[in-house]
Design goal:
single chain, alpha/beta, TIM Barrel, Arc Repressor Mutant, subunit A, three-stranded antiparallel beta sheet, 14 helices, globular, binds iron/sulfur cluster, 4Fe-4S
Length: 390
């Protein structure tokens, strides 16, 4: 994506797909995290090599099931987790070589990796740049030690203190940070102090999202046992609604509820999820969507390596799913193209009728088949999306 002053209008794209790879190990399991991940301390994972072999095996099996993938082109690869920066760079390199040998790959292939602060270093970024990784996202969440302790996150003070210095001197230009707000015990001003510290560095991508309480996490058990409290919803709504204007002043485009980018620096991979493009999900706990079918892998690394059924798929249900993803976008998109491509006639009529009602209420603009939310829709978003699918 080139930097441009014109806003990108998202549209249906038919000849590409993305690859997501889940590396399930972390230094420590955070209390609020509901991704499949296991805390294993500072050392490497015992099964790292066999896990990478299983990734290749899974890709091959899924391609045998969907041979048409060979006619598409991979334009995004995303190493997520867990903490993929915990894995050896050479293993990512071999995996990328494998993909290049098996598939058509776009010339401007986006290759992203999530990095945790404890792994970040100038040397690591050099290594990544050498193997073609061209996008790095660091899960910071907060720089406040009290907040990190509340979240049960590993905190390496030296690394947290030097991370902006490292990122602003990165050989990889497309770098971003995740920050979280609404952490109990922290004030609104704590979040803004983190944000302004990071804004000064001018990184091209920021994900700013609220803490949520997910079932099955340590955090949810602690809330149930009255050891911790729920996320601060009032603070969250206040920050959520203030952010678009503030970020715009700093030159960022608000392209998804929680995501801001300098022009041309949007995450092409994450846009696939919101624009209903196909992707292979590889690794334990990963999900994929290919040729109108979804699948999910076992949330257990050894079970995944022993036996992952690669012939079990559920058909997608675009009449309801499309709204859940597409209408999270706050940048403009060609809504008529999307609904004509994915929905049956009666759902198309329902979508169009509802969108016109939203326009009358001043919640969105529509023109020449292009849809864009207005800020007024933000706090109502969940209900609005629900209203289009029921
Ligand atoms: S580091 Fe990330 S993936 Fe790992 S437990 Fe924490 S939030 Fe989850």
């Amino acid at each position: 994506m080139k930097e441009s002053t014109e806003e990108t209008v998202w549209q249906v794209r038919n000849s590409f797909f993305g690859v997501y790879v889940h590396f399930p190990y972390c230094f420590k399991k955070c209390d609020y995290c509901d991704f499949y991940s296991e805390g294993i301390g500072a050392g490497p994972a015992n099964d790292e090599l066999s896990l990478f072999k299983s990734y290749q095996k899974e890709v091959s099996e899924r391609v045998s099931h969907f041979p048409n993938l060979k006619h598409r082109t991979i334009d995004t690869v995303f190493f997520g987790g867990g903490t993929p920066s915990k894995a050896k760079t050479k293993n990512w390199y071999h995996f990328l070589e494998f993909l290049r040998s098996e598939f058509n790959v776009a010339r401007d292939l986006e290759i992203s990796i999530e990095v945790n602060p404890e792994d970040l270093s100038p040397q690591l970024l050099e290594e990544y740049a050498k193997i073609g990784i061209n996008r790095v996202n660091v899960g910071v969440q907060t720089r406040n030690p009290k907040g990190l302790a509340y979240l049960g996150r590993h905190y390496d003070k030296e690394k947290y203190d030097s991370l902006l210095q490292t990122l602003t001197h990165s050989p990889i230009q497309r770098v971003g940070i995740d920050l979280m707000y609404g952490i109990p015990g922290l004030q609104t001003s704590d979040f803004y102090s983190d944000l302004s510290y990071i804004l000064e560095a001018g990184l091209p991508h920021l994900s700013l999202y609220s803490l949520t309480l997910e079932k099955g996490t340590q955090y949810s058990r602690d809330v149930k046992d009255h050891k911790k409290t729920e996320p601060e919803e009032n603070i969250q709504s206040e920050i959520l609604t203030a952010l678009p204007e503030l970020m715009e002043k700093h030159g960022y485009r608000w392209y998804e509820v929680s995501n801001y980018a300098k022009p041309g620096f949007e995450s092409k991979h994450n846009l696939k999820y919101w624009t209903y493009e196909p992707y292979l999900g590889i690794g334990p706990g990963a999900h994929g969507m290919i040729e109108g079918h979804r699948y999910g892998n076992p949330r257990n690394a050894s079970l995944y390596q022993k036996k992952t059924p690669t012939n079990q798929y559920e058909p997608v249900t675009p009449n309801s799913e499309l709204a859940l993803t597409l209408f999270r976008l706050f940048s403009p998109f060609r809504y008529l193209e999307f609904i004509e491509m994915y929905l049956d006639k009666s759902s198309q009529a329902k979508y169009i009728e509802t969108i016109h009602l939203w326009e009358k209420r001043g919640l969105c603009s529509i023109s020449n088949g292009i849809f864009q939310w207005k800020k007024e829709a933000l706090l109502l978003l969940d209900d609005l999306i629900l209203s289009i699918i029921v």
